[in-house]
Model the fold of this input.
Amino acid sequence: MAVGKQLAVRIFPDAETDLTSLENGTARFDDVQYLLAWRYPFGLLDALPNLKLIISAGAGVDHVLLDPDLPDHIPLVRFVDRHLTTRMTSYVASQVLFHTRRLTEVLEHQRNAQWLYVCDPLPETVRVGVMGLGELGQASASTLVSLGFQMRGWSRSPKTIDGITCFSGDDGLVPFLAETDILVVLLPLTPQTKHMLNRDLFSQLSCTGRSAYLPGPVLINAARGGLQNVPDILTSLNDGTLYAASLDVFENEPLSAEHPLWSHPRVVVSPHIASVTSPHRIARYALKQISTFEAGGTLEHTVDRMRGY
Done:
């Protein structure tokens, strides 16, 4: 399928993208029927009168749903890819193992030139809870099952997954947290989930005394920065409500150089790298969806706007 008047796809990697890039190519604004986008500038969609389909260049779509001009009649598709999933599962597994082995303490001892033994629990004594059992959540949970961890999962709607004790809905959240030592968050960002990672939620996690050598609960967030209340995370780390955290996402990125999370001894900060993929794979996925749409087929991974994912 040629890229031209029949098909014009443009990627806008951030809000500062110069919209004249469309006019510098072979396409004009009124030629554009398909938009592959990450963070495009609001107001763009009003300039695309013949738009038929929007494809998010990421697994999340909260940034698109915030657009006040998003047309109701145009389908929105999120990006799902095997390599994207593999990268997320490897990140989650690495961070769970990192904290199970208590490596924040080991690294602190290294910095202080201290040869000290740190007792760490066996995986089968640690309960890992995954919040969000979509494509990424299920794959990550299954990987951790294979590593020997006791797995719990929570989602808005009921799920049944081999090897994972599943909880769902508001009624299932409290018992899920009570059985979680390491909390892995892979939820979408919606009005209902915004800032839900707060002190009240952390205080419901149960760890001390259950995993003999894990001093307290651990938070791992690789989903969206808007899910977390950072002041509550810092307070909970400092008073022992949380033992440690791995944070890959932040509400304002990049994280400012003076932010206290950078220097906290029991926090792993990474620059939103848990799950990335190549532009080639994103483009190939987009072309597949467009071909399906042109043929009148059923699109994959269409977003339910009421649910936000």
Q: What stands out?
A: Residues 1-23 have pLDDT under 50 and may be disordered. The two ends are 29 Å apart (CA to CA). The first helix runs from residue 20 to 24.
